[in-house]
Amino acid sequence: MSHDADRVAAFIDAAPSPFHATDVAAATLRWAGFAELDVVGRWDDAASGPAFVRRDGSLVAWTDARGGPAGPLRIIGAHTDAPGLRIRPNPDRGRLGWRQVAVEVYGGALWNSWLDRDLRLAGRLAVADGTGTTSVLVDSVRAVARVPQLAIHLDRDVNTSGLRLDPQQHLTPVWGLGEVRDGDVRAVLADLAGVPASSVLAWDVGFVDAQAPATIGADASFLSAGRLDDLLCVWAGLDALVAAVGVTGSSTAVLVLVDHEEVGSETATGAAGAWVGQVLERRSEALGGTRTDLLRALAGSVCLSADVAHAVHPNHPERHDPDHQLIAGGGPAVKFNANARYATTAVGAASFSRAAESAGVPVQHYSHRADLPCGSTIGPLTAAGLGVETVDVGAPILSMHSARELVAVADVELLRRSFQAWVTAP
């Protein structure tokens, strides 16, 4: 792999859940000299940065306090979650000699991509520790389950009439043989955490692709991995924030990583929730600022909403607007939508384009077909919630929302360089 692709692959492999993603990000920030602040404690002088605070699968970090509490911010926002299969609270299921795990589809997953794929188990447990409840990360690392597809001999028309799946009936993984035993899943999760099964009170755990990320192609020009949406942008934003420490500039660099984007963001730690705004307000207060100072800072700030984009598909070019086809390896795309499904304005687009040009990075423009529904990002929610100028940007990929996605290795480096240039731009 290239150096950047190798780093992204390692990050993705170490982050099979949003909770692991913020755990890895926190370790990286501590290594870079950032102080971790207590989410419920007083921050005082520690908030002058570099510092960060995290809550579950979300994290906010910043470099310093340039310009004081009213100083402008350069924010990069990305999300830590990905579509997949989440384990239900009563998970033990099975029939006819197969032991299975009851799951619910999380987000807009491409269901067919989860068939016949070796699956790894990862997430967090809520564990009783005698005096309260502790969160414990779990990761099976190895494959423990699979959703088997029906053989063609039993579905002769599948190749001509199309595959039809019912998420309640057809996406339940198998993971053992024999009689179903109540408490089976809980026992396995407890074993992964190294705690008694009786102490496991609840979980936020799901299945992810167990295959490690890999470079593929005749000339190794592609990176194939699960969760490129949006861990590629999480990695690039994290790298840009660390690189911005000590760099002269007029704005404070801020990284916002949020969970639950794939299900609408309307949660306590999602982009539509209050937590990010509360963190920025507490930071301003710790710097001695007033609410007016915070509002002045936000009025002069700009946010880069970082999420992947649709590369033009060589087998389905008609699904793209003919004047806005993103070329793999052609650099990051600024995403536009007249109906505000993306938050990009002319001012935001210009800010990113200038920064990318200064780093020698080409920029592409994306606009969705008018006759197809357009997806969205945390950009519009961030712009509305914080009142900041926002630009939606992402690297072009194929197979978005599949269990395994594809990006050009060249675009990994170009994304990183553009984010570094943007976050330190004047």
CATH architecture of the largest domain: 3-Layer(aba) Sandwich
**Beta strands, count:** 20
Provide the helix percentage. Answer: 25-40%
SSE string: HHEEEEEEEEHEHEEEHEHHEEEHEHEEEH
H/I helix tally = 10
Instruction: Tell me about the largest β-sheet.
Output: 9 strands, mixed
Number of domains in the coordinates?
A: 2
Enumerate the strands of the largest sheet in spatial order, edge to edge or round the barrel.
1-2-3-13-4-14-18-16-17
Overall shape: it is: globular
Beta-strand portion reads 25-35%
Mean pLDDT: 94
CATH topology of the largest domain: Aminopeptidase
Broad structural category: alpha/beta
First-last Cα distance = 33 Å
List keywords for this structure.
426 residues; Aminopeptidase i, Domain 2; 27% strand; alpha/beta; six-stranded antiparallel beta sheet
Fold and architecture overview:
It is built from ten helices and 20 strands. The chain is of the alpha/beta class and 426 residues long. The chain folds into two domains: 3-82 and 226-423, Zn peptidases (Aminopeptidase), CATH 3.40.630.10; 84-209, Aminopeptidase i, Domain 2 (Roll). The strands form three sheets. The chain has a nine-stranded mixed beta sheet, with helices on both faces. It is globular, with a radius of gyration of 22 Å.
